[in-house]
Specification:
80% helix, Growth Hormone, Chain: A, single chain
Length: 396
């Protein structure tokens, strides 16, 4: 099914998907950054956390600004510069003194993050609407395949020489830049250019489905990302070894690689606003499973339900944001969507950590409520409005 879907897409999209796989497989430097800083540079964990945090700040800023830069100077050109810049940043990390690491990681995060929402904008905005969900799903499948392949390769390289990890990151970024430059065609100029920021906010404010989508993604992702923050804490506190948790996450990625694209193809003609709330519903049900069974078995059921929900709502949401984008705003719409998701990633750790420490019994009900409220809001959004008119006839 995946190969059939690839053959139906433009040739450049096949190379783009390969580039995504290479890029995701090689994106290892920041995954192992804290370990590198402590073990190889001799930093205290607190200082290492500050430097890694600087990279996170850069990622948020880059995601927010990437859409505007891409719409203003060209999405294709910006992605190429973004990947080259992140490749240079990865090479610099082992070379610069400790005092400059915070600046290097923040700058590299900023430049590299500009290309992430633009990659989705390039896919969603450059292929026919009927194939957008398939294209986004294939791109996500490639990234998740890289998540499966990359970490063990990075761990093997780090055991030999940590500098190889940063070299792999740099080569992956340059490979992605080459794929974009060589195989991805320059997009046609939009019929209407809207470089001004105020016009973007007016467009979003006038489209209630988009701002509802952004708000829902922010809240649902804040719940969804607890599987990466609070869930491992719960499992290790109840006696599960970390390898047991990592097995669940790896199996989730494998399932996405295998099933997300065929699912997107099968549902391609179904209304997006019907599929998105079903995805939220499965996210909520996953956390309901933890409410009733805060055990490893409950966590396995939770991950299974959440993975199904993720496969439904994530590619559909990204494609829907592209469908709603006015001409000249494709990059900014994807940047807003990506930033909303990253905002959930920022909210999740402090929210999960605080609630888990002070009221652990409330965390999973809160997560379930956020996702189920998102599902209910989208369900109501899709219902036809009923207008009751007054009867103006006069009875004789």
């Amino acid at each position: 099914m995946i190969w059939k879907s690839l053959r139906e897409l433009p040739v450049w999209m096949r190379f783009f998907t390969l580039g995504r796989l290479i890029k995701s497989t090689g994106s290892l430097a920041w995954l192992y950054m804290a370990v590198y800083l402590v073990q190889e540079r001799g930093l205290e964990p607190a200082m290492a956390g500050f430097i890694v945090g600087a990279n996170g700040v850069g990622i948020i800023a880059g995601s927010l600004s990437g859409g505007w830069v891409g719409d203003r100077f060209g999405i294709r050109r910006t992605i190429i510069v973004s990947n080259i810049g992140s490749a240079i940043g990865a090479v610099l990390v082992p070379l610069v003194p400790v005092g400059a690491l915070g600046f290097v990681t923040a700058t590299s995060g900023f430049v590299g993050a500009m290309g992430f929402p633009l990659g989705m904008a390039l896919v969603a905005g450059s292929i026919p609407p009927a194939q957008r969900r398939t294209g986004v799903a294939l791109s996500r499948a490639a990234m998740n395949a890289g998540v499966v392949l990359g970490p063990p390769l990075g761990a093997l390289a780090a055991s030999y020489d940590f500098r190889i990890v940063f070299l792999m990151e740099s080569v992956a970024g340059l490979a992605m830049a080459f794929v974009i430059w060589r195989f991805v065609p320059r997009p046609a100029a939009p019929s209407t250019l809207n470089p001004g920021g105020s016009s973007l906010w007016r467009a979003v404010a006038a489209d209630r489905t988009i701002w509802m989508l952004l708000l829902a993604v922010l809240l649902v992702d804040a719940a969804y990302r607890q599987i990466f923050t609070a869930l491992p804490l719960m499992l290790t506190d109840t006696g599960t070894r970390l390898i047991g948790y990592s097995a669940l996450i790896s199996l989730s990625s494998v399932l996405i690689v295998i099933a997300e694209t065929p699912l997107a193809v099968k549902l391609a003609n179904r209304p997006a606003l019907k599929i998105i709330p079903i995805g939220y519903l499965f996210i909520g049900l996953g956390f309901v499973a933890l409410v009733f069974s805060p055990t490893y078995a409950g966590a396995a059921l939770c991950i299974g339900l959440i993975t199904l929900g993720e496969m439904l709502y994530k590619p559909t949401s990204a494609a829907y944001a592209a469908d709603r984008a006015p001409d000249g705003m494709q990059g900014r719409y994807q940047s807003l969507y990506s930033s909303a998701s990253i905002g959930g990633m920022v909210i999740a750790p402090p929210l999960g950590g605080y609630v888990y420490q002070h009221a652990p019994g409330l965390l999973w009900p809160i997560c379930a409520s956020l996702a189920l409220l998102g599902a209910a809001a989208f369900f109501l959004l899709t219902q036809p409005r009923v207008v009751i008119a007054a009867d103006t006839e006069t009875l004789a």
